[in-house]
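Example for tutorial group B:
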């Protein structure tokens, strides 16, 4: 079956990909980066982000599940730093988990981020770098910030493979590139 969907060409740390465009609401399309299963892209992005984080003094990497999990793992290997993943569903074994609600651009629905009780000791008092694959609206980033703050940690940097949308609002994000949004 031939894919006739429009694409947007990108290059990440020397790796080229064509991202498919999807309408997320009437008149608004975004280029979808799905790094799950793309080992070449994940490894290249992790190496490039590790280099950009070289001057940042931090203890721990934090992300939200699910698409950025392979990226945070590869980045943790590249930097020698520990990492943890904020979950999007509560499980009873997570005990007295911390939580914060956010709104997902890809689903349009509220989602809650949870920090497993077992990770409280790991994060408390640490300097944290937040990581995401793409930062679009900043809602997931905001949810991660809230959970990290509740856990008694400090965010010292935020990074992603791509920022998306209004470039000026992401000037403090460490990113490998920027994606436009497509209107009309």
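The residue assignment follows.
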């Amino acid at each position: 079956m031939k894919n006739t969907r429009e694409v947007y060409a990108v290059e990440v740390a020397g790796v080229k990909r064509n991202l498919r465009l999807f309408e997320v609401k009437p008149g608004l399309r975004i280029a979808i980066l799905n790094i799950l299963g793309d080992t070449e892209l994940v490894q290249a992005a992790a190496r490039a982000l590790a280099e950009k984080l070289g001057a940042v003094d931090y203890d721990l990497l934090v992300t939200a599940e699910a698409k950025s999990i392979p990226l945070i793992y590869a980045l943790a290997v590249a930097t020698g730093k520990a990492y943890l993943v904020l979950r999007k569903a509560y499980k009873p074994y997570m005990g007295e988990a911390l939580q914060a609600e956010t709104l997902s651009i890809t689903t349009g629905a509220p989602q809650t981020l949870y920090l497993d009780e077992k990770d409280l000791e790991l994060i408390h008092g640490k300097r944290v770098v937040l990581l995401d694959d793409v930062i679009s609206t900043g809602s997931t980033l905001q949810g991660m910030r809230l959970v990290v703050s509740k856990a008694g940690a400090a965010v010292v940097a935020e990074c992603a493979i791509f920022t998306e949308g209004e470039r000026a609002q992401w000037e403090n994000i460490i990113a490998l590139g920027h994606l436009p949004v497509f209107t009309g």
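The chain has a mean pLDDT of 93. Compare this with the pattern of hydrophobic and polar residues in the output above.
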